[in-house]
Amino acid sequence: MALVTADTTPPIATREHTVDGFTREFLRELNFGQGVDLTRASVNDKYLAMARTVRHYLMTRWIETLRRQAELQAKSVAYLSAEFLLGRQLDNALLASDLQDIVREGLANLGIDLDELREAEVEPGLGNGGLGRLAACFIDSLATMNVPSIGYGIRYEYGIFQQTFVDGRQVEKPDDWLRLGSPWEFPHPEAAVTVGFGGHVEQYQADDGVVRRRWVPGWSVLGVPYNYMVPGYAKGRVNTLRLWSARATHAFDLQIFNSGDYAEAVRAQTFAENISKVLYPEDSTPQGKELRLQQQYFFVACSIKDFVDQVLPEGYDLHRLPERIVFQLNDTHPVIAVPELMRVLVDEKGWEWDEAWAVTKQCFAYTCHTLLPEALEVWPVELLGRLLPRHLEIIYRINDEFLAELRETYPNDELRVRRMSIIAEYPVRAVRMAYLATVAATKVNGVAELHSQLLRDKVLDDFAGYWPDKFTNVTNGVTPRRFVKLSNPGLSDLVTEAIGDGWVTDLDQLSGLEPLADDAEFRRRFREVKQANKRRITDVLAARDGIEVHPDTMFDVMVKRLHEYKRQTLKLLHIVSLYEKVTTGKIRLEDVTPRTFAFGAKAAPGYVLAKQIIHLINAVGSTINSDPALEGRLTVAFPANYNVTLAETLIPAADLSEQISLAGKEASGTGNMKFMLNGALTIGTDDGANVEIRRLVGDENFFLFGLTEPQVAELVDRGYHPSAYYETNEDLRHALDLIASGAFSGGDRAVFEPVVSNLLNEDRFLALADFQAYVDAQARVDEAYADTEDWTRRAVLNVARGGFFSSDRSMRDYIDGIWHTHPVPPGS
Ligand code: GL2
Fold first, then answer.
1. Residue 40 CA to ligand 1 centre (angstroms)
2. This prediction's pTM
3. In terms of CB atoms within 10 Å, which of 80, 112, 164, 800 comes out highest?
4. Do the Cβ atoms of 609 and 754 come closer than 8 Å?
């Protein structure tokens, strides 16, 4: 690698890419970094030393990437996201540095098992679910594709809570992910920035004689950046993820401390540091908490300041900002960045409003990730004005001008104008962040075709009517590096042997597997891989959770956050119904396809019904699992604390992927894509990206069921009465009655009464309406599974036709349709 590209550039130290070279570096880190010798080193010492050694091997590329970027000032993407659900870092770093074999051998020579050290890594759970994991996939793809980009987010001290089960009930524990050290981050306290809050706005006469307004914050905090490497696969760029940590501007008040009031002395410090203390655990249904708005403003203010003052060269003409950056707003969480950039340009740089708005409007693009009305963030004016008074003024002015523009276009339609106002008047006066984002953004995108269509037709229909060209779709994707190459080495090897390894960066090449679906020998080997993956998860579940499963059963898997709209209850009703029929002799056990029903799901701690559903799944599971007659036939496996690490072993083992949300509610889903790429067949509704999965894989290779979105809308309009389904469907009635009878709660009928009565009386997401269709689809699954060869053929076709769901393709769509950036390889 050419390290010196200009005479004036000093060389960057490199590492010898050999077993001996690695071993030397590793021992050096252990001795000089950890301060221990090999004989006394703990597993954590060895893990930390190895992690640091591995990151050294990526350092040249990182420094080179940063240097080139500073030199070229190529247009970049700043991905603003309150969540980055990274998962473990080590494997990805080993892959990106091409060190896997070297490290394994080098460690083995020292008597160390790489796998033991891999297990020591605590994953950074800085996200709730799909939205956060998507951000992590996107930055992986951007680095691999050599696109200049930076991720900006929050370094939560506590990530998504650790879930445990006590008597089947969810109990949350703080996720102290930093406690054993965090070798992947690079703190830069010297680059801290100050962020203000509260206070008031004042008028003053500027030097040029013009009367201006400025914000006088009441208090402020420091944002300390922590940099993470984002290494692209195979010699790609090493981009940066910059996460902000809040610190107090003053450690504590010495005078108060001296007077003996210790708690009071550190109060301000505690208050400031609370901002980045913990990730809010609500997925898709945010609560309008003040601290959450503080978090949002904190990280976007830090990021904009960082970009303008640090990343851009000194004296950069901000009128040209859109040539240099696009801020991608990952959902509404970072939307306060819009008035913040306006404030910087107007108040701090002294620009005219129109000038600033013209530039600001070109710098943002907005991705919406939801269809649930309760997930569209709205901030009461009272709260926003108290915390960010100047921003509220700016939002009002943006809105005033926008409404004036609308009145010109729709002079006789005041109703429409009010509907489109950024400020809602009811039930309290509040700022609609999705509307603000839509007004400011160059493009607004949904995350799957159906979702983008529903955004245009329903959620943001007035805006789509006004700005038809602003709206677009980018279907989500997942990184094949983490979710195939690393998590499913057996399948990766088989695929590479068949079609070469180009698929890792060009997933469309998987289509080369298509003819092999008809090759009996390939199918046999494909099945062997699946079987080995089932054995692997069987071992993991036994060791991790003490759960016994049988690798010879069909693995039927539903892993995602617990939410009513995702309808875990639908799957549960199917299981209960099956159990009821077997135990009452309505069907013979020999006729039941042996299945392992696997669940993984966290419920937001304040979401009472979701937690009751978790309890019910566990209760049904323990009844079924302790029935000796069902041993090896029906098993329910619900490991606690589903996270990225568990996903990486569970998904490759799945035969059947459950994607059963009510049509029109799941924006996209990304788990559905991971299952497909790992050779599971989907049972699913016509929702989110399922629609595209089914179109690509073909109807015959997908188990479709349930109401379509228009049918749902029609049924709800007509008036939905869940009890009618209970009354007319005998199987459903028996299943619900069994739960209500206390059969799964030691005879106590009260325990699950709320779940049952919610389904019977409310059932917001129409589980009962789709029950029969779901059960029928499951019967088709059984039938198909019985033909092993044909099932494998379909599974191979799922892999072969899944290339579209690479996050590399998503990135290409964003680049072509929204960002208009260009790749810049590190050494170019
Ligand atoms: C989500 C959607 O619910 C999910 O369907 C989508 O795949 C992801 C990523 O686009 O975004 N929206 C959301 O708030 N969360 C999601 O997972 N948490």
1. 46
2. 0.97
3. 80
4. yes
